[in-house]
Sequence to fold (69 residues):
Amino acid sequence: MAIHMLKIYPGSEAEDTFMNLLKEVDVKPDSVICRLGSVFGKDYNEYVISEGLFQQIREHLLKIKEEEA
Fold:
């Protein structure tokens, strides 16, 4: 089983969008592992998601990435 890491800046629009996306697919945001950047000396948080969840939200993530470019 693959694991995916998403690097997202805390308090950013990307984080709000990610949280809303989780709600859309009926995943409670507190059930996703978050490695706080402040603990590890990084300016971003790392969200650890399973391959199954990644496949559910993949198309949405690609759209978000395209909009940012």
